[in-house]
TrEMBL record:
Name listed for the protein in its UniProt record: Coenzyme A biosynthesis bifunctional protein CoaBC
Keyword Ligase recorded: yes
Record's cofactor remark: Binds 1 FMN per subunit.
EC number: 4.1.1.36, 6.3.2.5
Binding site for CTP: 103, 113, 129-132, 147, 161, 165
Swiss-Prot/TrEMBL cofactor(s): FMN; Mg(2+)
Record field: catalytic activity: (R)-4'-phosphopantothenate + L-cysteine + CTP = N-[(R)-4-phosphopantothenoyl]-L-cysteine + CMP + diphosphate + H(+); N-[(R)-4-phosphopantothenoyl]-L-cysteine + H(+) = (R)-4'-phosphopantetheine + CO2
Ranges where the record places region Phosphopantothenate--cysteine ligase: 15-223
Transmembrane segments: none
GO molecular function: phosphopantothenate--cysteine ligase activity; phosphopantothenoylcysteine decarboxylase activity
Keywords (A to Z) from UniProt: Decarboxylase, Flavoprotein, FMN, Ligase, Lyase, Magnesium, Metal-binding, Multifunctional enzyme
Length: 223
């Protein structure tokens, strides 16, 4: 019903959305990850679809079912997510990067499961590429939206990320607030735009947050 009632104000927009965590494997059965549920990114994909956009969703592992009318590309690691996104970047007019990409991966991935040893163990990590920053370096008129998870000095850090990654919009998430963020159906975000606007949204359903983000994407998008 929601899809039927929504205004088709994003017809012609080709939107690439990323969602969920990434998994960085140590061996075939162990990985490093984070608690992202994927809900925020899926909400953006569904809201955009309802408004007439053509949507591709690059998703890390989640429990969510594939939204109808959206092409879903499933990936696990940050490197896989990077490849899936870069392949579709030439097609996209806008990108909403809601995935919680792991900042590091194990320096080596073991082929077989190692038996445990009764001793301390050190894991060497190497940095993952910053996907969004790469997109910002070859933006060519696209609209780029990022998310920032912060626990302290959020506003300044989010504004710094917006500039460093050449974004139009960044959604600041407070991860230490109760009942919002990771895994929750609701979210409380601050939207910071390239032109200096700071919009503090009240706590609302992720689907509603998605619509507010898309309102701004529409504003920055030049068909
Ligand atoms: N991001 C990305 N690739 C990475 C890390 C992050 O594309 N390797 C994206 C996220 O999807 C998000 C934005 O960059 O949209 C900001 O992510 P965040 O983790 O807040 O920023 P970082 O640059 O990783 O900085 P830090 O974790 O140190 O705060
Ligand atoms: Ca990070």
């Amino acid at each position: 019903l929601e899809a039927f009632l929504a205004p088709k104000d994003l017809l012609g927009l080709r939107l690439l959305v990323s969602a969920g965590p990434t998994r960085e494997y140590l061996d075939p059965v162990r990985f490093i990850s984070n608690p992202s549920s994927g809900r925020m990114g899926y909400a953006v994909a569904e809201a955009a679809r309802d408004r007439g956009a053509e949507v591709v969703l690059v998703s890390g592992p989640t429990c969510l079912k594939a939204p109808w009318g959206v092409e879903v590309v499933r990936v696990e690691s940050a490197l896989e997510m990077r490849q899936a996104i870069l392949e579709r970047y030439p097609w996209a007019k806008a990108v909403v990067m809601a995935a919680a990409v792991a900042d590091y991966r194990p320096a080596e991935v073991l082929k077989d499961k190692e038996p445990k040893v009764e001793a301390e163990k050190t894991i060497r990590l190497v940095p993952n590429p910053d996907i969004l920053k790469e997109l910002g370096e070859r933006k060519e008129g696209r609209v780029l939206v990022g998310f920032a998870m912060e626990t302290a000095s959020g506003l300044e850090r989010a504004q710094e990320k917006l500039r460093r990654k050449n974004l139009d919009l960044i959604a600041l998430n407070w991860v230490n607030r109760e009942g919002v963020g990771f895994g929750s159906p609701e979210n409380e975000v601050v939207l910071i735009s390239r032109d200096g606007r700071v919009l503090e949204l009240p706590r609302m359903e992720k689907r509603q947050v998605a619509h507010r983000i898309l309102d701004l994407v529409k504003e920055f998008w030049k068909p």
